[in-house]
Design brief:
The complex is a heterodimer of chains A (317) and B (397).
Chain A (H helix, E strand, L loop, with lengths): L13 E7 L2 E6 L5 E4 L2 E4 H4 L6 E4 L6 E5 L3 H7 L9 H10 L7 E5 L5 H10 L4 E6 L2 H13 L6 E5 L2 H4 L9 E4 L8 H7 L6 E7 L2 H13 L3 E19 L4 H4 L10 H11 L14 E7 L9 E7 L7
Parallel strand pairs in A: 7-8, 7-10, 8-9, 10-11
Antiparallel strand pairs in A: 1-2, 1-6, 3-4, 5-6, 11-14, 12-13, 12-14
Helix pairs in contact in A: 2-4
Chain B lengths: L14 E6 L5 E6 L4 E3 L5 E3 H4 L7 E4 L5 E4 L28 H13 L4 H10 L9 H15 L2 E6 L2 H12 L8 H10 L7 E6 L4 H8 L6 E6 L16 H5 L1 E5 L20 H26 L2 E7 L4 H8 L3 E11 L3 H12 L3 E15 L6 E2 L9 E7 L6
Parallel strand pairs in B: 8-9, 8-11, 9-10, 11-12
Antiparallel strand pairs in B: 1-2, 1-7, 3-4, 5-6, 5-7, 12-15, 13-14, 13-15
Helix pairs in contact in B: 3-4
The chains are: A alpha/beta (317), B alpha/beta (397).
Function (chain A): Catalytic subunit of tRNA (adenine-N(1)-)-methyltransferase, which catalyzes the formation of N(1)-methyladenine at position 58 (m1A58) in initiator methionyl-tRNA.
Catalytic activity (chain A): adenosine(58) in tRNA + S-adenosyl-L-methionine = N(1)-methyladenosine(58) in tRNA + S-adenosyl-L-homocysteine + H(+)
Family (chain A): Belongs to the class I-like SAM-binding methyltransferase superfamily. TRM61 family.
Amino acid sequence: MFHKYKSVIEEGDTIIVYVSPEAMRPVHVKSGEIFNNRFGSFRHSDMIGLRYGSKLRSNNDKGFVYLLHPTPALWTQVVPHRTQILYLPDISFISLYLDLRPGKVMIECGTGSGSFSHSIARTIAPTGHLYTFEYHELRAATAKKEFEEHNLSSIITIEHRDVLANGFGKTDIADAVFLDLPAPWEAIASAKDALRKDTIGRICCFSPCIEQVQATALALDEHGFSEIRMFECLAKDNEVRTVPFPDIEEAINGQKINFKLSKCDRKKRKLESEPASGGHDDEGKDAEILISKPIDTARGHTSYLTFAILAPEVEEE
Amino acid sequence: MEPMQLDPTLIKDGDFVVIRMPSTNSKIVCIKSGATVSLGKFGSFKADALIGNTFGHTFEIEKGGAIKPHKQAGFDNADITEANNKEIFDDPKAQKLSFEEIESLKAKSLAGDVSAQEIIASLTENNESFARKTEFSKSKYIKRKQKKFMKSFLPMETTVHNACDFFFEANSQKIRGIRTDTLSQLLSLANVYSDARILAVDDGQGLVISALLSRLGDGGQVFAIHDGDVHNYDVMRYMNFSAECKERLKALSWSKLYHEMEPFTEELAKNATEDDINGRERRMRGHTKLSDNLRNLREGEFDALVISTNYNPLSVIKKLVPYLGGSRMLVVYDQSKEALLESFAWLRESCEFLNVQLTESWLREYQVLPKRTHPMMGMSGGGGFLLSAIHLAPTED
């Protein structure tokens, strides 16, 4: 599902029901069940057999939803938050920096809500493997159930384990390690143990505070990691609109332009006020411009991403 | 059960490698057996010495072009609270070595007769103000000199990240100014995975195509549409892709988009020469390839449409959207936001698309040193914009 596209919705699929960008819900399709929202109800049995990306009308025809194929990116937007989660810009940058691709073996700690796990699994499947550790028992169990429902069990092994106390229990196995822990510096020795010694190993530590970065960098240096580099990345959303852009002559001539009307309403008003002239364009007055601007409030900080590499062992001469 | 591991990445004869020098400048070089790789004032080394090595080590160049792994010094604990420039005067006479003496040391160093450490030692010994410096500024002075005189280098694999980073620094216009973080988001948004079939347009010399290919496995495919007769995906040749990986790229010229195939009817003349026979075979292979490619494209239902183009992106979107599957992603990259606005407005009005987004990516690197952590003094001004939307299945109503 998350690591392979399908074209038609089947029993047992997890799909994303889309009403608007703010209203998306994951639904596990099971005939006999019903999905309800303010537009009415939608029978799961009506979803089965439809193509992904189809529109489904509610039983009372009051509204509709779109039935989308799940992807790790959409999952990040709908995942039930059991912890603070990783967002797309960080997930993407870490994956590229750690050179994730099919066949890579990776260790993630902790699993949290599993937002990043889905993305890692998608990228390293079908031949790679993710070992993910979570010290919170209930969170581990919930994530395990989700991975099973999403057919990711062959790619993800999840273990309820306190790695600070017990290490990863893995040696010379991983191409990459990702640490999202309150004290990542205490897990660097285990990470070193888990990384392969016959080829370059890569690590990323994800910490919101600069003090954590300081301690992590010292630990990485002490344990022989090199190329310690730290980044912060964000994506700024933009809104795009067509707005009136009249010549000042209009104001000089005593015209008052309503700058707040949407493009659609402007069109409507125009048709009402001058039905005879129809689409006639009175230049200056009706001038418009397509503009964009960053949205008013944006995420300003997620975490610092500290990267390092572990050089393979060399035989002493 | 333990999972299968990929083979360790070793530097092979003929591979391209990014070489980072002490100055932190990088170059991309081909490691060819028998050749000598020159790093200018940082010396030169025999390519054969590097072949067979793994990545991750910094190497020091020795006399005669031999190399050996060099243990890098860890963090120093110089204390910034003592750092001040109270006793430091800008005095050109502080250095007792003459210009000629320094030049001769440099020449000896390049020949491998004097080590970088020895040069730096004689520079500090002969520098009258060095002793008056605080530990912090001593360490800074030595680091600055190391950047100039060390004869060492770090070979780095041309991963997609490293290649993008290298070209972004060296010649960002070549790759249409796409920065590592933006490229990484493009791969996520397009949901690239092992078996994906991706339709792509890349007028940035193939960095985007290379990034897509790197995430594919046996069942995957990149179908690329390019202008001109043959594509110019120059970046691909630096990626050390296997033959199987390159096979996953299918390319078609825009000029053939609406081409209708005729059966191959060329007959050989009775007195055909070997050249004639070879020529006919070549044309027949071309004919089959074009016919396969057109059939492939027209099957449609691609898993993603990824565009980075010098042409009007909206015109490209309109031509290629019919080949994109339902509930699949459209992702368009451009260096400037203006180039994407018209497409954004069109996608939002179209009932074929959902969740239209336009984002600008932002990336900042920090210096991390004990008690001296701060954002880098310089950063890239911009890494480009991504326009993305979810494509819907055709509706009956």
